[in-house]
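Our platform keeps sequence and structure together, in a single record for each protein. Such a record has a labelled line for the sequence and another for the backbone structure tokens. Nothing more is needed to write down the fold, since each code stands for a local backbone conformation. For reference, a complete record is included directly beneath this paragraph:
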Amino acid sequence: MTTNGGSQPVFCTIVPPHVLDRLARNEDPALSGPARRSLEHDAYQRTHRRLTTVIGAPSVAPPASAAADQPHRTIYDAGHREDLPGTKVREEGSEAGPDATVNRAYAGLGATFELYLNAYGRNSIDGEGLPLDASVHYGTDYDNAFWNGEQMVFGDGDNEIFLDFTIPVDVIGHELTHGVTQHTANLAYFGQSGALNESLSDVFGSLIKQYALGQTAAEADWLIGAGLLAPRVTGTALRSMKAPGTAYDDDVLGKDPQPATMDHYVHTGRDNGGVHINSGIPNHAFYLAATALGGHSWEKAGQLWYDVLTGGALKEDALFADFATLTVRAARERYGAGDELQAVQKAWEQVGVRTP
């Protein structure tokens, strides 16, 4: 069920299409080939996602034996094919095997489940114990990871630009959070609402990593996808919430295009109106609020963002100012006129988004 009625035909990948577009034009076939194939795979999955929305996805319920406070994970090996889900290789409660990719996917699904349950009392992605399925080793040199509305899918990367997509736990958390948004605010995937959709996935992806590592706001790196870029790439991650626009500056990938404030908002028709680009603005606002409040970011700043995501007042076509206004309201309702309210108001002010 979604809060705002119906489910948007959204297909979301961790690597933005504009990055793969640039790689696909490279003269080196070792770089362009995997990128082109990845774009073709993504186009197919995007169409499949749209058809699933029209026809209806099968309803998946947790097994009768599943405990409400435990995940129900199943990992499949796609065997470098594109048929999903693949061969079952690990299920809930089974021991780790020799495939590190399988083990990382299993652990990442668990880390995501734990953050949402322990911090916010949410039982899995849909709040009702949805089983968490994932397929690894998808395609050949597939340069992406995605949530298709039903399960997670991970590529192995091309080992030239991208490594195995199960390496960063925040990538797993990011994509699964698209599922949470799908079942709650259901934000439209275009323009500012789409950038909010992406930002919320970055926010909770980062919180999942911080929770798993037991980090405070001051200790966190605030990077999305650290460890994903191959050694030849001049960069640290896909995105930086602390300093949008600084995650990479590479002769092949180009320069990270994310703005940190509304002064540099990017108006574009690409990437669904720049959803992966302008998400840097609300990302930075969250970073500023969380670090101003200190301590564990999931406890106060994260709680406020979660309140807004799941509260029912966030419209599908929300603008940054709409979301910001709701976070201010949530801070006032939960904490009163104290430091929390001031931190949230100042954070949005610093990125150029007005609030009451």
In short: The longest helix spans residues 29-55. The mean pLDDT is 92. The CA atoms of residues 190 and 234 lie 30 Å apart. The chain is about 40% helix and 10% strand.
